[in-house]
Design brief:
The complex is a heterodimer of chains A (677) and B (318). Helix content of chain A is 68%, strand content 5%. Chain A is mainly alpha-helical and 677 residues long. In chain A, the strands form 3 sheets. Chain A has a two-stranded antiparallel ribbon. In chain A, strands 3-4 form a two-stranded antiparallel sheet. The longest helix of chain A is centred in the middle third of the chain and has 36 residues. The radius of gyration of chain B is 19 Å and the shape is globular. The mean pLDDT of chain B is 90. Chain B is mostly helical. The chains are: A mainly alpha (677), B mainly alpha (318). At the A-B interface, helix 16, helix 17, strand 4, helix 21 and strand 5 of A face strand 1, helix 3, helix 4, helix 5 and helix 10 of B.
């Protein structure tokens, strides 16, 4: 008897109960009860995922649940990865969310709607990977989109920008749904069935053109959900404007489902495809990685920076998935397995550190009401726990040892470097470029997170609000502590995930890579001679730090540390206004990538009335607009608006005209029928 | 693993740690003589370090733990990297724990720690240095990893001892176009990583042009000694890495004490020669403008990309 159905049933019950509690309970009881039930649903979901990763599989049909088609559910190890990650993030965020919403008043996240939606959102995040037919998948997918939309709008009374972000999100997620609907409808019609089993069986009978079309449409929808370019524009708007616990869920568990959908559709249901699919996916991933992190490095809004960094990390994951497909299409299955394992490990790592980053950013926002790095600063002494946790997560995000992100990027680089064994000129050109793009994105990520941590948390407060910051309440710190523990575990003993990842990779028919093995403390590749012991690196660094601190003390005379004024080249004790801001920190990088970013700036100099040489006021303003949005979206939006305006002329208000339209339409239809059929 | 292996690791750490000030002194001396000055002598950096270590530690008001831990972290990352790079022997007990990517990442970790310390001071100069350093570091990263890629193609691994011993067995790899291009690319990257002319001038104290020094402005006493030592060690380590990768002869590949001793002497000779060449070149070069540095790095990136493609197509043809 598998534990999966019991766990999923528990998750559904708790999630449903949480939604009802959110609607029904008075404010005082609402937040803790909903938090508890959501956390319970998360635990159950994670348990289902872990059970699936442990090797059990489960499938069921519930014919009565959806009219006409019924509900099909199935859980394998691949779904298990995403369920376990979603469940784990839900648990931590639910604990954090109780602290976040409490004391915030019955508005925002504490409101009736938001509290009712939060458990439902958690539930859909856990259940989407369990769907095993097109209709079940789409129903859950759409439910997840709608529920998250309501959550994004939770703080709409406080900021007008929330409403705008909500509109963008609603439009783009439904654009994705339309693409997905078209792709799956086409696929199901040609394959002769809408359950995943039928699609899998019928995929070989579908013509290559249709398969390609299905992949492109579904790929666009799924990469959009994951925030990859070009359909990423909703992400840097919606993620910063949502309440932080919701941002944490959206930026980890929800974007992950875009990756899940792509792996499931491309590698499993369609059973892999020609090289051009995967080259396209690698291109999308590479561009997203660099463009996303470049925008993150320019952003001075803390949460916007984190949102763009999600775009980057999902880009890296797509490079891994694309490499996996590419190697499969050339027949090198062990290497494909390694690339996919790297991508999945990065999904897990990213979820851990990004959820923590968003939660830490949330406690900054909650305490100061500021997201603008240029006005923050000095938080390390005012909110030490939050600052420390942010630093820990940032270490994971910059892909440097001993952070957890380094291990998955290392695996990804190994799979790409060894990919040159695969013959083919396309491979020989694409893989080095991918390695370069990964390296560039890692380098810029370091700059972006040095900025976020160094400007946002270090130095001195640049505004009175930052000066008055207080540490977050214990429940929020507890939630973040859970995520931090996950980050540390993933950084030190990633090998514990080895078997689980192998099972997930073999769920789509690839051999297990054996990438992570050796008792949990070692990353050793079986086919490739390269190894990494994260635990050894940490131990060696610790010993070296102790030596570097201790040896000079032995040599020098032991004296107490003296406090002294900042020297600052003799200028002495600068004011906080003189410190480097996030904008000035990013300026050199912005200048280097001027042609890509195309910043816009305004300089207004107002001279005093008596003399043109004396300046009364200088106003400088610079924006780094999203250029892809600028170039790609605005023409489309303009064209749509233009069409709408000109279509208005058709409706002149005359009944004769409308009758005429009806008559002409009927005649055209009849003529077409008579001639064509 | 044998005692020789452990001795080799210890030797690498000691030679990088203790030799780094000497290398800097040697380079300054070469430069001084070429410029017609007498110079302060090879031992001067040692004397400076000793003097600084005896001073009282000072914490500027308004700085935090990032500022205090950065010097130790800078030295520690370099020490761990020195243990991993086969400077003296390819047969060490630690070599299987990590590879070239990790070494590169450790060096980057030291850079990040110092940049955070620069921002932690809250002065304009600290921020300026941090911002410039991170810009240069971000742009160097692709070059370094592509060079790693190019080097690992013939060896079939990113494990450094395997790359080095492979090159000892098959010297033809180094003379190949791919090997030469990768050398050139990595050399430029090393100049940028260690903050030498033409990217940064290590002896400048002109606020508006400096990169590395700007981050370390607020340090004094033992902390300053560690920061300086860390920078010197990085230079030694990276020059040593270059010599190990491209002039690997003499590095001990087995477990014999004699080979280790020969390797030590040869290592010192190679690094001193490289240092002298670098110092001599610096006499004739000027530091380039900060915003010309990306052009230099883009050039080195192109070389590295050519190295990878050359390595692929040439090895495919043969």
């Amino acid at each position: 008897m598998s534990a999966i159905p019991a766990a999923l049933a528990t998750a559904t019950t708790l999630g449903g109960a949480g939604a009802l509690a959110g609607l029904g309970l008075p404010y005082r009881l609402r937040v803790p009860v909903v938090g508890l039930l959501t956390a319970g649903a998360g635990v159950a979901g994670a348990a289902a995922g872990v059970a699936a990763l442990g090797g059990s599989r489960w499938a069921t049909d519930l014919p009565g649940l959806l009219p006409l088609v019924g509900t099909h559910l199935a859980v394998d190890a691949l779904a298990g990865v995403f369920m376990a990650v979603a469940g784990a993030v839900v648990v931590a965020v639910a604990v954090y969310g109780v602290g976040y919403a409490a004391g915030h008043g019955p508005h925002g996240l504490g409101s009736r709607t938001a509290q009712a939606m939060l458990p439902l959102f958690a539930l859909t995040l856990v259940l989407v990977p369990a769907a095993a037919s097109v209709s079940t998948f789409l129903v859950l997918w759409e439910l997840m989109a709608l529920v998250s939309l309501l959550l994004v709008l939770a703080e709409h009374r406080e900021r007008a920008s929330v409403r705008q972000a909500g509109v963008w999100y609603a439009v783009m997620t439904h654009l994705g749904l339309v693409l997905l609907l078209a792709a799956f409808a086409l696929f199901a019609a040609r394959a002769g069935g809408e359950t995943f089993a039928a699609l899998r069986a019928g995929a070989h009978t579908v013509s290559p053109t249709v398969r390609g079309l299905v992949f492109v449409l579904a790929g666009l929808a799924f990469t959009s959900k994951a925030g990859a370019v070009p359909l990423h524009a909703w992400l840097p708007r919606a993620h910063p404007e949502a309440p932080s616990p919701v941002s944490a869920l959206m930026s980890t568990a929800m974007v992950n489902l875009g990756v899940y959908g792509l792996i499931r559709t491309g590698l499993d249901l369609l059973g892999g495809g020609p090289a051009w699919w995967w080259l396209g996916l690698i291109a999308v991933g590479g561009v997203s990685a660099v463009y996303g992190i470049l925008q993150a490095a320019m952003a001075s809004d803390l949460k916007r920076l984190l949102a763009y960094s999600t775009s980057e990390n999902m880009g890296l994951v797509f490079i891994g998935v694309g490499a996996c497909g590419l190697f499969t299409s050339y027949g090198d299955r062990p290497l494909a397995a390694l690339a996919l394992a790297a991508a999945l490990l990065h999904v897990v790592n990213h979820a851990a550190f990004k959820a923590l980053l968003f939660c830490a950013a949330g406690s900054v926002v909650r305490s100061t009401g500021l997201r603008d790095l240029d006005r923050l600063g000095g938080l390390r002494s005012r909110m030490p726990a939050t600052a420390g946790l942010f630093a820990l997560a940032a270490l994971g995000a910059v892909a440097l040892p001993p952070g957890n992100g380094f291990i998955s990027e290392w695996l990804l680089l190994q799979s790409l470097i060894h990919g040159l064994q695969v013959p083919g000129v396309a491979v020989a050109v694409v893989l080095p470029l991918s390695v370069a793009l990964i390296a560039l994105s890692a380098g810029i990520a370091a700059a972006a997170f040095v900025k976020a941590l160094g400007v946002g948390f270090f130095a001195r407060p640049r505004s009175p609000r930052a000066d008055g910051a207080r540490e977050a309440p214990p429940l929020m710190i507890a939630g973040m502590g859970l995520l931090a523990a996950a980050c540390v575990a993933l950084a030190l003993v990633p090998g514990l995930l080895g078997d689980a990842l192998d099972r997930a990779v073999s769920a789509i028919g690839l051999p297990g890579s054996g990438a992570l093995s050796g008792g949990g403390v070692r990353v050793r590749l079986t086919d490739i001679s390269a190894s990494l012991s994260p635990l050894w690196v940490v131990a060696a660094l610790a010993v070296a730090i102790m030596a570097a601190v201790g040896l000079p003390r032995l040599y020098g005379r032991r004296r107490r540390r003296m406090n002294a004024r900042l020297w600052d080249c003799g200028g002495g004790a600068p004011t906080p206004r003189m410190a480097y801001t996030a904008t000035s920190f990013a300026e050199p990088l912005q200048r280097v990538f001027d042609d890509v970013l195309a910043p816009e700036q305004d300089l207004n100099v107002t001279p005093v009335r008596e003399s043109a040489y004396l300046v009364e006021r200088v106003r400088f303003e610079r924006r780094v607009p999203d250029r892809i949005e600028h170039r790609l979206y605005e023409p489309v939006l303009r064209a749509l608006a233009g069409t709408g305006r000109s279509a208005r002329r058709l409706a002149g208000g005359s009944v004769h005209l409308y009758l005429g339209y009806g008559f002409v339409g009927l005649v055209v239809l009849l003529v077409a029928l008579a001639v064509g059929w | 693993m044998s005692a020789v292996g452990y001795a080799a690791v210890a030797g690498q750490i000691v030679v990088v740690g203790a030799g780094a000030p000497l290398l800097t002194g040697w380079m300054r001396q070469v430069r001084a003589r070429l410029e017609g000055r007498a110079g302060a002598g090879v031992l001067q950096p040692w004397r400076d370090t000793r003097k600084l270590l005896r001073k009282e530690p000072i914490t500027p008001v308004g700085t935090g733990s990032a500022f205090r831990t950065a010097p130790a972290l800078l030295v520690a990352t370099t020490v761990v990297a020195a243990a991993l790079v086969p400077l003296l022997s390819t047969d060490t007990p630690v070599s299987s724990h990590a590879d070239l990517i990790l070494v590169v990442a450790l060096i980057a970790l030291g850079t990040v720690a110092l940049a955070l310390a620069g921002l932690d001071t809250g002065t304009a100069f600290g921020g300026m240095g941090a911002s410039r350093e991170m810009t240069v570091a971000a742009l160097v990263e692709p070059t370094i990893l592509l060079s790693v890629f190019a080097l690992s193609i013939p060896a079939g691994t990113t494990n450094i001892p395997a790359i080095v011993s492979g090159a000892v067995d098959e010297p033809g790899r180094l003379a190949s176009p791919a090997g030469l291009l990768a050398t050139a690319a990595l050399a430029v990257a090393v100049l940028a990583e260690t903050g030498r002319i033409p990217v940064d001038n290590p002896s400048t104290h002109l606020e508006l042009t400096m990169i590395h020094e700007a981050m370390a402005l607020e340090y004094a006493g033992p902390d300053l000694a560690l920061v300086e030592l860390g920078a010197q060690m990085r230079l030694t380590l990276l020059l040593g890495l270059l010599s190990s990768l491209f002039v690997p002869w003499g590095i001990a590949t087995g477990t014999s004490w004699a080979a280790l001793a020969v390797a030590l002497v040869l290592f010192a000779a190679k690094v001193c020669l490289l240092g002298a060449v670098l110092a001599a070149a610096e006499v004739f070069w000027a530091k380039i403008r900060l915003f010309r540095v990306p052009e230099l790095l883009a050039g080195s990136f192109l070389l590295a990309l050519l190295a990878v493609t050359a390595s692929y197509f040439l090895s495919g043809a043969s």
